[in-house]
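hiii so um. not sure if this is the right channel but i have a protein structure encoded as tokens and i wanna go backwards to a sequence. like what aa goes where. can anyone help
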């Protein structure tokens, strides 16, 4: 096990994958708890499709992918909140509207420019080879910003997650903090797409939170457990990908599925023990 890790870390691309992957997994897990509890977990799936469309346009224009995708997805996240909150198009319908439109734009741009080449495949399904040193530097900086903002506004995020109406009554600007969560999620989605792919990145948001809720009962407990589960599953998934030559994104998702199954069994056994006592 140790020898395998040493061998993997001898390759620069694996160091980049572990560094960015761990940071993105941590950010995704923290934000995912609030999104799942607010029944808004599919925002990650919607924004990932927006990110794919933006990356397709960036590729066609020979522009820096992250520099184009991040502002576009942030705008989409804010727009998504506005549409679902202030119009007749609510929640899942708004996500479906924006995600399918963006995906269609991305496919159309690709079809008339570069075609379905390797870069496009990597954006759809992820690749640990897709990250350059410049991507890593930008990802580390933005991930640090996401973590700092989440920790700094933790109490406000906790308040609007559990009772947004009461939070507003006590003076909390719920709209502002909902926008903050959406923006942080947008940044995290774009950073993770290079490795996980547009079709799988939302799993980093959903799985750790759902897994931890099988066992933990407090918001803080779920947050901590989600962070640990997410990072451990990412490391395990990358190791499986390296050893078995499987896609990195899919391997990470399979590790998360295994963790969900284990935590579910633990939760069932614990509940039975509590009933007997």
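sure thing!! here u go:
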């Amino acid at each position: 096990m140790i020898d395998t890790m040493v061998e993997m870390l001898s390759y620069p691309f694996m160091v980049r994958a572990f560094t960015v992957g761990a940071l993105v997994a941590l950010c995704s897990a923290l934000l995912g708890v609030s999104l799942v509890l607010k029944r808004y977990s599919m925002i990650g799936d919607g924004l990932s499709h927006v990110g794919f469309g933006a990356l397709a346009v960036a590729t066609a224009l020979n522009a820096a992918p992250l520099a184009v995708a991040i502002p576009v997805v942030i705008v989409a996240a804010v727009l998504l909140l506005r549409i679902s909150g202030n119009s007749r198009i609510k929640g899942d319908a708004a996500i479906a509207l924006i995600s399918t439109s963006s995906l269609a734009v991305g496919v159309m741009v690709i079809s008339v420019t570069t075609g379905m080449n390797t870069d496009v495949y990597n954006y759809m399904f992820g690749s640990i080879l897709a990250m350059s040193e410049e991507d890593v530097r930008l990802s580390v900086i933005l991930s640090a910003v996401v973590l700092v903002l989440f920790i700094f506004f933790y109490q406000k995020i906790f308040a609007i997650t559990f009772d947004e109406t009461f939070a507003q009554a006590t003076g909390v600007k719920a709209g502002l903090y909902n926008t903050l969560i959406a923006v942080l999620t947008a940044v995290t989605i774009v950073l993770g797409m290079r490795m996980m792919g547009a079709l799988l990145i939302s799993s980093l948001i959903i799985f750790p939170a759902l897994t931890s809720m099988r066992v933990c009962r407090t918001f803080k407990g779920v947050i901590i457990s989600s962070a640990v589960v997410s990072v451990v599953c990412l490391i395990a998934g990358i190791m499986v990908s390296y050893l078995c030559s499987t896609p990195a994104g899919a391997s990470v998702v399979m590790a998360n599925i295994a963790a969900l199954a284990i935590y579910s069994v633990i939760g069932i056994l614990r509940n039975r023990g509590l009933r007997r006592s």
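oh and The longest helix spans residues 248-276.
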